[in-house]
Amino acid sequence: MKTNKQIALVVLIGSLMLSSCVQTDIDDALEYDKHYKTTEDADNAILGVYSSFMRMADQMLILNELRGELTDLTAYSGTELQEIDAANPSESNTLADPTSYYNVILNCNDALENFKIMLENNRMTPEEFRERYADLTAMRCYMYLQLAAQFGRVYYITKPIVNLADMRAYSDSAKVTIDQLLPLLIADMESLEFMDPYVTSPLVQYNLDGYDLSYFFINKKLMLADLYLWNGDYLKAAFLYKEIMDTYSDGEATVNCYTYKLAAATTWTTATAYSTWAYQIFFLRYKEDDMEAYNNQWVNIFSDDMTGRRIRYEWIWSMSYDAAYAPSFPLIDLFAKPEDGGSYLLKPSAYAIEDLYGSQKMQNGFTLDGRGPEASFYQSSDGDYVISKYLYRYDPSKPYERAGRLYLYRGGLLHLRYAEAANRAGYPDVAYAIVNQGIAGTYGVGLESVVDYPEPFYFDPRYTTTPYYRGPWRYNFGIRGRAWLQSKEGSVFADKTLAECVDKQDSIRVMEKIIMDECALECAYEGHRFPDLVRVARRMNREAAGSGNNYLQAVLQGKYLKSGRAVPDYSSEEKWFLP
Amino acid sequence: MISEYSSSRTMIKCLKTIGILLLLTGIAVLPVKAQDGLVTVTGKVLSQADQKGLPGISVTVQNLTSVMTADDGGFSLSLPSADAELSISGPGYQTKKVALRGRTQLIVKLHADNFTNSVYKEVLMPLGTVNNSHLSAAAVFLDQDKSTEVAIMPEQLLQAKVSGLNAMFRSGMEGSGANLFVRGFNSLYASNQPLLVIDGMVLENAQFGNSLIEGYISTPLGAIDVQDIDRITLIKDASSVYGVKGANGALLIQTKRTTDLATKINLMAVQGLSLQPSKIPMLNAKDARHYLIDMYQSTGQYSATEIQALPFVDQQIPVQQPWGYSGNVDYYRYNKNTDWQDEIFRPAYKQHYSLNVSGGDEVAVYGLSLGFVNKESVVEGSDFNRFNARINTGIKFNPAIQVFTNMSFVYGMKNLANEGNAGYLNPIYSALVKAPFTTSFVYDRHNRRSPKHEEVDFFGHANPAVVTGLTDTENSFYRFLGNLDLNIKLNDKLKLVSIFGIDYNKERERIFYPTGGIPYESIPLAAVSNQQQHRVERLFSIFSDTRLHYARNFGYQRRLDASLGLRYLNSRAEDDYGKGYNSSSNYFVSIGSGSNRLYQTGGAIGNWNWLALYGNVDYNHKNRYFVNALLSYDASSRYGSEIAAFQAFPSLGAAWLISSEEFMKNSQWIDMFKLRANYSMTGNDGIGNYAAKRYYVTQNFLGNYGLVRGNLVNEKLMPERNNKLSAGLDLALLNERLNISLDLYHSTVKDMLIHAEAPAYTGFRFYIENGGEMRNRGIDASLNARLVEKGAFSWDLGLAASHYQNEILSLSTGDFNTPIAGGLVRTEVGKPLGIFYGYKTEGIYQTAAEAAENQLYKMSGTVKVPYGAGDVRYVNVNGDDLIDQNDMQQIGNPNPDLHGSLWTDLAWKGLSISAVFRYSLGNDVYNYTRRNLESMSSFANQTQAVLNRWKSEAQTATMPRAVYGDPMGNSAFSDRWIEDGSYLKLKTLSLAYAIPIQSGVLRNLTIYGTAENLLCLTAYKGYDPEIISASAEMPLYYGVDAFTMPTCRTFYLGIKIGL
């Protein structure tokens, strides 16, 4: 028996030894135990998250736009797009499949969990950690908010899902509603120790293939501000928006007025004088009735390359796709005409062209919104309208050079969101100014023209020589002022104009609809429309049950009526969301 | 590594332990009974052919006694009892085992040693040879003379005489391998191919990268010359000795080893010619023109004048005018009559030479062979060239130590053709869809032919002459296969066997697709004008297998054999490819000449290891009862981390040779009657090298890379388990003139790998898990009969028939559909694997009224469109008013009811004639080729069947109307494309004549001729019901015909010379 035991022991030890020599290494992928060892690994994980986001951004854009009223189907749109438009996707519809959203989220979770381990094991310094941890936390919140705005209920998962046991730990009951989700996301964001853009990360220290990567990363404060805005914390939201609007406000007098302040000049005397700083629409001075003197610089927000000076004044978050690298820019195929190398799957809705842009009046009385025709869309020679916002970096004669940018956050949007927060926080007059003729345009630039509300509603537009004073808001002429449009006093979705309002609450309700109208005009096709409408309609429903449903239905139906299709039923909140 | 076991005493202890285990399982090692008195057995050995006594034949009772027959064939033996088994053998005659069954007088008739049907052959088995009459496993053994065989692929040998194996060639292209399915399907996603064991060395029958040539799968068997093969065993069950790699059975091949010391030289030369395949009846120029005009009209985008002006419609001959040309300038380019099938198919020439030298002395023997093959395929531009060299040696250092070496080097070069779903790069597709009024060369306005090839035509179709003539699709491989086999006799009971081998295979592919004549899909950065592709695949495997073998006889009636061994396989595969595009001209064909911006590279590296400890016990009681127990204890690098590092795979087999029982004494006409049963557990580790590991993959981020999660890890991933239960009987009657083998089996595949749909919240779409269960039940039968044996004349007839029933028992994912070639294959619990799932049809709606009556609609986007006259009448299953996926049902089953082969051999003196038929009955085929050619939805040329398409309510049509783009889905995946694929085919018909040689230098001289694929009885409409799909390695792709090269009638003439 003793020998038997010895044999057993030998066999046991032998097999253990042998089994260890059975193990193999992976040579064409990175095994977990070799990952997350250095900050370079961490940065590669971050690039991984953003690259997976870049690969699904077209799906997000399609859902956010096609479900809104500004974007319509073409003769080339297939069944999947038709179903999305009709808000009735079939089970197999890949556009209504949230997997790619969760892919970005789970990539974040995986990295975040391992960043913590790296910090514990001293593989990252606390400084390195907090920048990276904050970035991906914000990115995850962004994806969750996007997901919730389309799907209503989401699985709120903050741990990595590595194996099947992790996968099976979640069931349908783990889903949360937007109402439950928002406080969770806010708590996540509020717990961050670092809210600024990357400072020390090598990712922003150099240009990658000619691109300044600092534009590629999410703005954490805006993320939190958006969450506040969704959650009804208007003052908190306004504070954060204002903080970003005030970037460089305390800088030198010569430059304190540009960044994210929608700077514009009142008059230009020569066509070349618009210089390098303003994205505005104007007529040359004294030629305001001459279309020859019309000049649209606003469109350059989308056509300027990302290296110029003025681009920094407008763009906060934007990701560039290069022609030479995967993923190639997917939006050319989506929007360009077949003869220009695209598939022309989506186009501007007739409703947007005729009813929205077609009803705007310029300051000289002309009916034209320079942000629409020849800017957001154009009419091709065969009469079809084409969404052109994404096509400025694309030359149809070079159909294989598909470069372009994804538009995620810019000054115009920031001001509109601030206006929305300020309005609800009890400052419809500030919102009115921001949306229409701006701080300088509304309050003037004289010594007395300071908007003397407490922060975040304090604005200084002063521009005086004696005493020499240069207030940071001196060139702010508002969203509509920058587009040289007349002020908006009412909305077709509101039962009265601002002038007819009897109290502040009335003004706020009307002003909100004006802001939403302006969001459509300013940020059309930039992927914000449907979530914006959901946010506001939810808010309205909370205020007066059913009013949000009616509002949403009213805003969206224009597109369907004009195209002769049935209007989807949005008569209750569950019906807004994809299954 | 084996040192722990080197002490033979320890070993014996081990074996005793196993013996005790055996006792516990109820198999008693009976004590030797004392015998008193001796019995005298007398007998006579006669020749079966002429009934004359045979002198000098040895009559042996193992471990007891042996005598030689006298001049009249008589012998006499003194034995302890009349319960012994005699082994009777002699030069020039078969070996026969005769149980005395209590008899003391007997007459034995021996067949000559070329009697292929003998049931007393020594069968090659994993741990040595076992006499067929003692075998408890279900194994098929092939050892026939292959010297006049025209086959060059070992798989061809398996197509006849083997029951329970479905050996289907992937293509009629020379050098293509076959898919070998042993007893139904054994896995859904993992390998179904039996393990290859060549001269004791394990090779995985798999590819380790993906060919750049569509439809091509490299096969390790292609590196083995049929002429070098000595014998083959296909083990259908009881492959537990190969543990986790044994689930699909094992194919054991032994290459030639000589035992003859005289120097022998064999030379063979074969030449042959394949004829063109019979054609698919396509539309001729006139009918194609009418069809295309209909098609243009149906687009709704052309006016009558515009259609009249189309270059293939306008019949105005161009006339030169002072100002240019009047008439249709392209008239001559679009008004020819070309049979495109004639353009791409050709008679193909074949040659094959082989030289074999063997000899040696008392110490060392050697066998050396050289072979050269050059076989053209019937598609223009494709062929297979192979050069192979092999040296096998056997060295006897002393009586106790023997070393064998087997080394082969093969160089092969194939000019392949893209097959299957390769679009225009598949010459067969290009030729079939090409309009017959176009030509391969440019004709000018004066009808003068230019040497220039035509470009892509007006309809966007490729020029097939360019696809076959100007493309390079070359695959070359170098394979070195070498092993060293050491046999040491430690004492008279204990033997050490050790095999160490290396398998090195390198495949290179060089591809060039030229500018002009081929429409290319564009790539992200450019329109493609031409393409250069290179690929290298490399496999390096080290194999070792060491075992101790213990054999002990207990008297002359009982014997114990036991082995304990350790096996190790370390493999490393690498696949790298590069693609270049748009070189400056068709003369720059290498990848370096492609445009700098457009290079694409890729590849994969795989490492995997397998280690197994195994033990085997064979016990033979009285040469009547045989028990075999086996255990393999396997570790693999592929297992998940949460399962045991070693997995046990046991098996137990038993056989009862009833014919040796005393009560069979009077059944003289029964030579052998054996019952056998076997239960084995084997595994399938084709679960991916890294599927169970957590890893990250790179993803582009501008010019940099990000890292993202690679998979949803299944840490419990384990090999599939195949539990096989089989029972069989072997019967030999009338002195082996009628032999029957019958096998029943029931195998269950457990923990079958499935690709499950991951919930969206994981961010992954799929994960793999061991979530399926499948069953195969079946029966294999084979029959061999010597109908006539009279003097020098003999006539044999044989039949192999197999039937299996495959059924999916459970799926953790639920039923699912897999899209294949525009159709769906459904995997459903309770159904067999490979079910075609689509719509059923009931003809077409002849009139609008008929259609209106049914009130059925099809969804077009979100709009409902009613069916009209000329549309297919689909069966509405669920009763709503829509035809959609809810109306799909089973429309075909690709599994045959019965498949197998039939053969017959006639021999008279030096003349022999043999014929082999193959058949398959009751299998459905999804004819994807025909679907493309009868869909009537594009400008592709169609078959003549479309002549009877619906045009007006006045006629009765059998085909639906022709509408561009097929908006009503008349060509959807339906039973219209499912055909009965049953066939009976005369695979080979051979005639050989051995010219009588008096004396001199020549030992023998044989001339022979063979015809392949001479006749085929089938209703199948495609080229070849036998060759169905080029990429049917996975069962899900089984029975799909997608533009694959057929086999053709081929005639060979050969000569064999022995010196």
Describe this structure in words.
The complex is a heterodimer of chains A (579) and B (1059). Chain A is mainly alpha-helical. Chain A has 21 helices and 17 strands. A two-stranded antiparallel ribbon of chain A has the order 2-10. A two-stranded antiparallel sheet of chain A has the order 3-4. In chain A, helix 18 runs antiparallel to helix 19 (529-543). Chain B is mainly beta and 1059 residues long. Chain B is 7% helix and 47% strand. In chain B, the strands form 13 sheets. Chain B has a 22-stranded antiparallel β-barrel. A 5-stranded mixed beta sheet of chain B has the order 10-15-16-13-14. Chain B has a 4-stranded antiparallel beta sheet with strand order 3-2-5-6, with no helix packed on it. The two termini of chain B are 47 Å apart. At the A-B interface, helix 1, strand 1, helix 2, helix 3 and helix 4 of A face helix 1, strand 30, strand 31, strand 34 and strand 35 of B.
